[in-house]
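Dear Dr. K.,

Following up on our conversation at the group meeting, I've run the structure prediction for Purine permease from Linum tenue. I'm pasting the input sequence below exactly as I used it, so you can double-check it against your construct before we proceed with anything downstream. Let me know if the numbering doesn't match what you have in your notebook.
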Amino acid sequence: MTLIWIAVFWQLFSIGAVGLIFEVSSLFSNSISVVGLPIVPIAAIFFFHDKMSGVKGISMVLAIWGFVSYVYQFYVDDKNSRVVKKAVDETSR
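The predicted structure tokens came back this morning:
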């Protein structure tokens, strides 16, 4: 039963990811995929009554850390590009 549901949800995920790539961008599709990484172990604990092990906890922490790093790097890059744009606008006057 687990394998059947894994196959069904894998197909839904694939269709959704391709839809996001076509409608928005591949970057947004990737960020949505990264957000979903820590949700899977939490859902397994609640729906399948899976035990929370040390390996699962470490993987969730690493997934959340990766997402936060991704968002922070995007913030830093955006901030730097605004500073450069402002400097270019001031020099062109």
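Two things stood out to me. The radius of gyration is 19 Å. The CA atoms of residues 38 and 59 lie 8 Å apart.

Best regards,
J.T.
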